[in-house]
Amino acid sequence: MKIADFTILKACRVSARGFTVSLAAITLAACAGQPERVDLLLRGGLVYDGTGSPPRPADVGITNGQIQFVKKAPRVIAARTIDASGLAVAPGFIDAHSHVPEAVERIEGPFIDAQDLSQGVTTILASPDGGLSPRIMQQLKAALAAKGMGVNYSCYVGHNGIREEAMPGQRRAATPEEIERMAAMVREGMEMGCVGLSTGLMYDPGMFATEAEVQALAAAVKPYGGTYDSHTRDPGFHMVESEREAIELGKAVGIPAKLAHLKATGLINKGHIGKVIAMVEAARAQGFDIVADQYPFDGATVRAVYDLFVLPDGRGDRQVTEAEVRAALVDPARRGAVREATENGVDKGFSWIKAVGYGNVRIVDAPENPDLVDENIELLAKKRGIAPFDLLADLAALKSVRVTLGTIDEADIRELIVKPWVMVASDGAYIDAQSLARGYAHPRASGSFTRVLGHYSRDLKLFPLEEAIRKMTGFPAAHLGLADRGRLMPGLAADVVMFDPATVAARATYADPGAFSTGIVTVIVNGKVAFENGKPTGVTAGQFVPRTR
């Protein structure tokens, strides 16, 4: 080594989040014949770095929870070596839209989140769809920290959460004073490290917000480099107009905007996803950062059929019991009031049928009557010559009937999923005995990422594996401002997934939504092995990951 080279190396240091590696020390050690030392070595895999670049054979060295090197490294001393021969080695997957953390309070002991680890997810974005205020978010963070986390979490500031605190019980447009009160909460959340603002404009109370209110709150995230994520206002009956509202907000405020769980649902929207694609691509051509996330299943929200009914007191969707619904439906004096509340909401409030319509409801599981599976409620009611409400009432008399509120045509899924500005996300909830009993567990919670890897990339060959991985790693990390996640590069956090490209696949179905995927071999969270041999190790290496953009 020349003296000039030594001088350059001595001056060169790489730093990332407090981790400093002296390139001079590493190079001199190598030149002196001394092997590098690491905590964990992934030997002999095919590395997909998360950028969309073609894979390359390389070893991955991990020390102190961070990636030390990605290269061919024949001489390394490792506390543990994992043979990655024949496996893909990729950054841990990032789920940019998940409801899993909402279950933390009902889980005893560490919150491991096996369903996400089993499909390679290492970082989850909490509080989508307008979820949590900063106050509630702090409570969630405290609960997760106390229990221990199996994966990493980051958060949006939730519009519905702050609206409920700023103007409790109000179903009207906000005043300027109330908007400023909410904007202060948005800024509080961004100071906590949130990635941006999320809205759930289809739900109560977000459905009462004006476009001006939402735009003012989205503007509050701009100084922080935040993003806007929207469950749009009326995707059932006015899909194109609702997605346009979110696109125009991003353009007007000048911030990145993401169309949450983008899809074309129901009979009236079948074949229309191309209209939204055209709007997004026109905005992107103008230089605006408009993106979307998508889950790769042909049904949207899953519910037990009795959850679709709203009682005249306003209770519905997880608030009513099966027995209460049945009692109300068989009572002639109450049945009419139940129909009115179910179809129109109470006091202009939310109801599933009001939001999506009968033509958006499809039966996905009916153990007592399997011939009903895949029947659309509106079409089946016409076939039977009865009103759709009466058909739902008949189904409520059966046991364990589950429906999806939003049938998605497979051709529409494929047309959207190939777009480079579409990332993968689950929109999943935590699956346990309670969610299974209530009938609202969805296979996307356990199989979204592996279904894309196996079915859409490998089997259908819609895009190469490196592009599928980019959609789950480097792309969402860049959009969300999580600078130390989503790529396999020295100095970044050591979130890694190792899987078999030939066998990786989702096994979750509507009948068995919690089934673990196949082909995921090892998952590493912040340098610790969190999943191997088909199950979690019990390690709680997860952290809260703040926006770093």
Automatic annotation (TrEMBL):
Q: Give the GO cellular component terms, alphabetically.
A: cytosol
Please state every residue range assigned to the domain named Amidohydrolase: 80-530
What's a single GO MF annotation on this record?
A: hydrolase activity, acting on carbon-nitrogen (but not peptide) bonds, in cyclic amides
Which Pfam family, any one, appears in the UniProt record? Amidohydro_3
Q: What is this protein called?
A: Dihydroorotase
Q: Which organism is it from?
A: Sphingosinicella microcystinivorans
